[in-house]
Amino acid sequence: MTRRVMALMFGLLTLGTVLRFQRVLVDRITANYWFAKCMTYEGPKEATAYSEQLPLEFLRRAPIEPWDAFSLRWGGAVPMSQGTVFLHERKTRTGSKRLVAVDVVGTTNGRMVQFQSHVFEPPIGISPARRKSAGIRVLAMPDAEGRLTMQRGKPDLLDASHFVIGYRIGERRGDVDGWLRDDDTIVLEVRADAATRPAPSPGAITR
Asked: Which helix (H) or strand (E) holds 149?
């Protein structure tokens, strides 16, 4: 009788271990599937990704399916964000592929916008993606009359480390430039003149 009980308990423990491993395996495969979708995400053209002074019930940004799905499977929660303004693959100057995600997470008086950036190294096989960096950058947007809105950012086809987030304040238009650096941090700078694209300044590193 004792042997039967012990055998049954061992069988249940083995089954529990197998089920847990199976759940982890399914979660990793699913997370990696959505990671691949994030790397090639484009979204609707000219879509508004962020708009200030939204009613409270719409304060949180509309879900970005691949970003939310990946974050939920990878970290157990969707991003806290008021607008995902960039989501796509970028490369370092040395050619390393990374997933770059940038969200607006808050604003302060004087039109100071708080950006949250995440940089992930792609998974290999069923291993999980590795987050290489996460940083907050606060940018002072131009002083102009009107509501601030931002479009979904676009990758630069000529510079694989660079991306551009268009913004509008009333009738004034401009861009926020972003760069993926070789140390896996993100540089963000406001460019008021959309006709030029400056190089990142040494002091503009996200911390």
From this structure: strand 148-151
Q: What is the pTM of this model?
A: 0.80
Q: How far apart are CA 134 and CA 168, in angstroms?
A: 26
3-class secondary structure for 42-84? Answer: CCCCCCEEEECCCCHHHCCCCCCHHHHHHHHHHHCCCCCCCEE
Sequence-distant contacts of 162-167: CB under 8 A, at least 24 apart: 162/90, 162/197, 163/86, 163/88, 163/90, 163/100, 164/197, 165/49, 165/85, 165/86, 165/102, 166/194, 167/141
* CA–CA dist 167, 174 (Å, integer): 5
pLDDT tens readout for residues 129-187: 999 999 999 999 988 888 899 999 999 999 999 999 999 988 889 999 999 999 999 99
Q: Which two tokens stand for residue 186?
A: 């993100």
